[in-house]
Amino acid sequence: MNKIKFPNGKKFIFTIVDDTDDAFCDKIKPVYDILYKNGLRTTKTVWVKPVRDPKFSKGDSLENPDYLDFILDIKKKGFEIALHNVGSGDYKRSEILDGLNQYKEILGQNPGLHINHSYNPDNIYCGSKRFSFPLNMIVKKMYSQYNAFYGEVKNSKYFWGDFHKKLIKYSRNYEIDDINTLKRNPYMPYSDKQYEDYCNQWYSSTFASNQWMFKKMVNKKSIDRLEKEGGVCILYTHLGYYFKKGKVDPHFKQAIEYLGQKKNACFMPVTEVLNLLQENKIKNNIPEYMPFWFKKRIELHSLITRIKYRYIIKKDDYHFKQSYDYKD
Ligand SMILES: [Zn+2]
Asked: pLDDT (tens digit, 9 = 90+) per residue, 288-299?
């Protein structure tokens, strides 16, 4: 187990990686006001360019001046800004490189973190490529429409893997069905030979893509357990969903306030968390690569998590987005 030495005598970490889907300036701001008021500093991904596939995706980009003001404001407050592809839809190499330049010009630094968006063809090692044999074959069969990704394919017009390797320090893989992400994957951040050409280190995240899942994963009981276990939570969600019918999701507000009151809680954005884990990993002699069977096991855990919340406990985005709760 990766025994963590937390900064300032703290005892556990809670952070969020926020997928920017559905984030519009007026509705996302009240959600971040709650995080900020309670002392949290998390990671928000952004699109540089406007959405190109409005049938599937929506949300503001850095080209919207009000939204840009909001992003610059939370950045100043200590939140981390990261990339969610340069935009939603079909972006080819030259536009991606242009978007990366635009990102740097606007935010004063390159993105250090990127997460793949939905069906973007420029996604990096996406779909069944996220798994090794034999699970990759199963995933390919199960999600046959989720396989056209070319970000790391060198002769493709969507290739940007060389820039991904140069800029992006940490990539996200494997969904964890537990608030304590680190307990399930003590190797974080780790390297993976399967993806070494165009990626650097990797991390896992707690699966909580919407407020239904958030409520299941993050509540008083699970927060108390995270504290007791001295754990680390890196929660993946879409905070753009959380403002509906004129207000921020009440459970989210309550849970964040509960976290905010915890004297033992350490709040820092994802990159800072992973940097800290890396230091501890070296001190604790934890290997850089996951052992063979551990990798197989966590791949299976990740796939089972997806299947569980799609077909058994129907709370994933497929179900959430068809519900009354998703409507404005
Ligand atoms: Zn997305």
From this structure: 999 999 999 999
What CA–CA distance (Å, rounded) separates 159 from 94?
Answer: 9
Q: Domain 7-326 is of which CATH architecture?
A: Alpha-Beta Barrel (3.20)
b/e map of 242-274 (b: 16 or more CB within 10 Å)?
A: bbeeeebbeebbebbebbbebeebbbbbbbbbb
Q: For 142-179, what is each residue's pLDDT tens digit?
A: 887 778 899 999 999 999 999 999 999 999 999 999 99
Q: 300 C-alpha to center of ligand 1: Å?
A: 23
d(CA 120, ligand 1 centre) in Å? 9
- Report DSSP state, residue 310: I
The confidence score (pLDDT) of residue 47 equals: 98
Q: What's the CA-to-centroid distance between 290 and ligand 1, angstroms?
A: 27
- Whether the predicted pLDDT of 1 surpasses 60: no
Determine the pLDDT at residue 2: 54
Residues 176 and 304: their CA atoms lie apart, in Å, by 10
Beta bridge partners, 44, equal 18, 81
pLDDT tier at 43, thresholds 50, 70, 90? very high
Bridge-based pairing of strands 43-46 and 243-244 is unpaired
CA-to-CA dists, residue 251 to 42, 50, 113, 206, 324, angstroms: 18, 31, 28, 18, 17
**Environment class of 118 (CB within 10 Å of its CB; exposed 0-12, middle 13-18, buried 19+):** middle
Q: Which residues surround ligand 1, an ion (CB under 5 A)?
A: 19, 21, 117
Please write the tens of the pLDDT for every residue from 99-108: 999 999 999 9
Ligand 1 centre distance from Cα of residue 124 (Å) = 13
> What's the CA-to-centroid distance between 19 and ligand 1, angstroms?
5
